[in-house]
């Protein structure tokens, strides 16, 4: 009886979402830290395993070859990541639905072929050629989406057929020559090979990003306190924004610090495009109704349908976006190689893109993952590839090591899922 | 209980039903799941839909929810003949359904599940703050005990999940709420809470269709009982003047049987005899029920 008034007095000053007495409260920096620790211990790992993995890989290769972490090598590593990373963003989307697209390599090859044939052989303006190459991907994705929703054929089989079919289309578009070189002075090749953001502009971008982050956090804080909900403290917002600015600033400074032949090289525009795609897709997935419906369909398709979500539309748009990103990746790869040939999008493009999404932490079973996993995953894969080529080891070793890393990523995912379930965080 | 249920039952005879099904038929391949089903729901009443396993209750719910449109028959909503071809159409009409298997997305948090399919947006982006605030208001109205609305639904208990599912159905202020086995997996206190919730829905003027296997729940809150058997209508009762036995007989099909017919006629004689005593008929009614149930056990 005596406790009731004090409890009421206490709840009056507590935000609406923190009133339940069973909720574990995290106060101050220490509480925050303990909450994070318990989150990780119960299997809610987020992107921690891949971040740890990346650090380990970098330490190992740096100790084997001191050039590995040189600005020059990292600049190259980022440029090599952009094309397949863009394809991996599309893979993340289909994996969120619990589906798969095995044909992204072939689709990127088709886009490269359309770009090269249109721009070089037919003499189309570059913009038109790029647009048509990307649209070819969109059309292929729409085709997959319609096949999937109309006939209910598993996406695994549809895209396996696509893998073969569109490889054929790529060869047919390329014609007898089989290899078309794109002019080194054309915009697309310069964009992918030689255009780097100047240091001043890079630092400007860093400042803008940090300010936008802080502004968004402040606005959210204001809205939440108006609505009577708990909000991030001002100090935390300042610390987080400052940390973001410092980390990005150091990265930009280091990448721009190349000496000699590499002077003037830093962050390529292609890399900026890739990172921008990742950030925008993450925002769209987290903050739009469409993104929410993607997670819902991936989590429980029947529940999504009953909630009134147009499930078929979600499938069609996701397949279309995936193939579109594959085509964008194909265009970037063609620009970086300055050519399109029969091997464009072949070999390990497919598997690297899918492996990147999974290594980055997107679940194979749908409903769990983020666009950032494409970025983190491709960094892991390219780091391995770059490190091994610095050690002059050939691709046989690279394939085996990448395979082992993929296996570890999937095992970590399974273990953390089990641990989440037993800790009630599934 | 007798007094409270008589008032709305009398009122319903005057107004027209808000949702009315006529001659609903549904086939799945060679199986005739529903044959010629009629059902009326009035505002501010609780209709219990009962029947054995395979009677077609869940199929009928899915017809009304737009999950499986009917093959034949008409649906009238608010006096207009309507076609419910999808869950979205059903919801837009003002029919909210809480499914037996809950239909929640385990990977999403409580707020996302509550607003799934009709999220609030500001300037094209999700209005997370507004939705979180409204979630707390709604859950508090239902006196729901959910510690945080930002945890994944997978980590909630069965009762908490049921509360989320029912709360979700109320967001669009529907005219008809369909609850498919809402108390099936719940504990004693949580069942009582859900039943309170059902009564609160009725008092707010919603028409409620309650599907349940639990006759105690049905008798506690329903105004009318519609019995389905093997995909057909098999009787309609007003709770106020129906015994537990009659409903069970209709559910199991025992009414077609000579023995039960004889038992039933004996029973009516007894009830009439009891009602002849004018002084305390309200007290006598449960007594008649008790007698009927003991007789059922003897048989």
Automatic annotation (TrEMBL), chain A:
GO MF terms held by the record: transmembrane transporter activity
Which branch of life, at top level?
Bacteria
Where is the signal peptide, in residue numbers? none
UniProt keywords (A-Z) are: Cell inner membrane, Cell membrane, Membrane, Sugar transport, Transmembrane, Transmembrane helix, Transport
Alphabetical list of Pfam families matching this protein: BPD_transp_2
Question: Where is the protein localized?
Answer: Cell membrane
Bilayer-crossing residues are 42-61, 73-95, 102-120, 126-148, 155-175, 195-216, 237-255, 267-285, 314-338, 374-393
Q: Which InterPro entries match?
A: ABC_transp_permease (IPR001851)
GO CC terms of this entry: plasma membrane
Q: How does it sit in the membrane?
A: Multi-pass membrane protein
- Keyword Cell membrane attributed: yes
Summarize the protein's role: Part of the binding-protein-dependent transport system for D-xylose. Probably responsible for the translocation of the substrate across the membrane.
Known PANTHER family for this protein? ABC TRANSPORTER PERMEASE PROTEIN YPHD-RELATED-RELATED (PTHR32196), XYLOSE TRANSPORT SYSTEM PERMEASE PROTEIN XYLH (PTHR32196:SF32)
Q: What is this protein called?
A: Xylose transport system permease protein XylH
Identify the taxonomic lineage of the organism of origin. Bacteria, Bacillati, Actinomycetota, Actinomycetes, Micrococcales
From TrEMBL, chain B:
Q: What name goes with this protein?
A: Arabinose import ATP-binding protein AraG
Q: Output the Gene Ontology terms for molecular function.
A: ATP binding; ATP hydrolysis activity
CDD domains from the xrefs? ABC_Carb_Monos_I
Q: Which domain of life is it from?
A: Bacteria
UniProt cross-references to Gene3D superfamilies, sorted A to Z: P-loop containing nucleotide triphosphate hydrolases
Q: Which UniProt keywords apply?
A: ATP-binding, Nucleotide-binding
**Bias category Low complexity: which stretches?**
279-291
Q: Give the source lineage, highest ranks first.
A: Bacteria, Bacillati, Actinomycetota, Actinomycetes, Micrococcales
Keyword Electron transport belongs to the record:
no
InterPro entries linked: AAA+_ATPase, ABC_carbohydrate_import_ATPase, ABC_transporter-like_ATP-bd, P-loop_NTPase
Ranges for domain ABC transporter come to 19-255
> Annotated region Disordered: where?
277-299
């Amino acid at each position: 009886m005596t406790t009731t008034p004090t409890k009421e007095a206490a709840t009056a000053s507590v935000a609406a979402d923190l009133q339940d007495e069973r909720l574990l409260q995290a106060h101050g920096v220490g509480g925050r830290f303990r909450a994070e620790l318990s989150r990780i211990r119960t299997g809610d790992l987020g992107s921690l395993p891949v971040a740890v993995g990346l650090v380990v890989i970098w330490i190992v290769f740096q100790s084997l070859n001191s050039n590995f972490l040189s600005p020059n090598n990292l600049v190259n590593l980022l440029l090599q990541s952009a094309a397949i990373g863009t394809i991996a963003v599309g893979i993340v989307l289909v994996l969120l639905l619990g589906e798969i697209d095995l044909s992204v390599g072939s689709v990127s090859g088709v886009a490269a072929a359309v770009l090269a044939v249109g721009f070089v052989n037919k003499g189309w303006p570059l913009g038109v050629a790029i647009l048509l190459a990307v649209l070819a991907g969109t059309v292929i994705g729409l085709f997959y989406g319609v096949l999937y929703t109309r006939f209910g054929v598993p996406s695994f089989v549809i895209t396996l057929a696509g893998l073969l079919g569109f490889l054929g289309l790529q060869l047919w578009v390329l014609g007898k020559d089989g290899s078309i070189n794109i002019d080194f002075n054309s915009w697309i090749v310069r964009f992918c090979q030689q255009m780097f953001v100047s240091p001043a502009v890079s630092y400007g971008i860093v400042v803008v990003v940090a300010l936008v982050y802080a502004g968004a956090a402040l606005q959210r804080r204001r809205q939440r306190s108006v609505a009577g909900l708990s909000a991030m403290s001002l100090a935390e917002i300042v610390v987080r924004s400052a940390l973001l600015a410092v980390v990005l600033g150091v990265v930009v400074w280091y990448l721009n610090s190349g000496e000699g032949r590499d002077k003037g090289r830093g962050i390529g525009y292609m890399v900026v495009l890739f990172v921008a795609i990742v950030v925008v897709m993450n925002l769209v997935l987290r903050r739009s109704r469409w993104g929410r419906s993607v997670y819902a369909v991936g989590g429980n398709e029947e529940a999504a349908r009953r909630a009134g979500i147009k499930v078929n539309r979600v499938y069609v748009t996701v397949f279309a976006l995936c193939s579109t990103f594959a085509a964008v990746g194909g265009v970037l790869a063609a620009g970086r190689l300055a050519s399109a040939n029969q091997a464009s999008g072949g070999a390990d493009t497919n598997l690297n893109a899918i492996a990147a999404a999974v290594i980055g932490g997107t679940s194979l079973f749908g409903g769990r993952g983020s666009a950032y996993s494409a970025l983190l995953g491709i960094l892991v894969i390219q780091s391995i590839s770059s490190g091994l080529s610095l050690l002059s080891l050939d691709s046989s070793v690279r394939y085996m090591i990448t395979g082992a890393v993929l296996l570890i990523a999937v095992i970590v995912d399974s273990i953390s899922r089990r641990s989440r379930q037993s800790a009630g965080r599934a | 209980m007798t007094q409270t249920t008589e008032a709305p039952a009398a009122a319903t005879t005057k107004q027209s039903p808000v949702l009315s099904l006529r001659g609903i038929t549904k086939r799945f391949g060679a199986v005739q799941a529903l044959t010629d089903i009629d059902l009326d729901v009035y505002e501010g009443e609780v209709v219990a839909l009962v029947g054995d396993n395979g009677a077609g209750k869940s199929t009928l719910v899915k017809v009304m929810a737009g999950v499986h449109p009917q093959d034949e028959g008409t649906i009238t909503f608010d006096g207009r003949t309507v076609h419910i071809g999808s869950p979205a159409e059903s919801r837009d009409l003002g029919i909210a359904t809480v499914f037996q298997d809950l239909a929640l997305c385990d990977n999403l948090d409580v707020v996302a599940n509550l607003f799934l399919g009709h999220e609030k947006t500001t300037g094209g982006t999700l209005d997370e703050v507004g939705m979180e605030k409204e979630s707390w208001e709604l859950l508090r109205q239902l006196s729901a005990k959910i510690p945080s609305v930002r945890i994944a639904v997978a980590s909630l208990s069965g009762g908490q999940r049921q509360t989320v599912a029912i709360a979700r159905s109320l967001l669009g202020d529907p005219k008809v709420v369909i609850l498919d086995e809402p108390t099936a997996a719940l504990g004693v206190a949580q069942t009582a809470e859900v039943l309170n919730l059902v009564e609160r829905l009725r008092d707010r003027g919603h028409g409620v269709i309650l599907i349940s296997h639990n006759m105690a729940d049905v008798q506690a809150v329903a105004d009318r009982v519609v019995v389905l058997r093997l995909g057909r209508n098999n009787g309609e009762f007003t709770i106020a003047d129906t015994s537990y036995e009659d409903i069970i007989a209709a559910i199991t099909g025992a009414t077609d049987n000579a023995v039960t017919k004889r038992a039933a006629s004996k029973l009516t004689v007894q009830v009439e005899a009891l009602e002849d005593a004018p002084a305390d008929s309200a007290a006598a009614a449960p007594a008649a029920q008790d007698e009927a149930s003991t007789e059922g056990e003897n048989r």
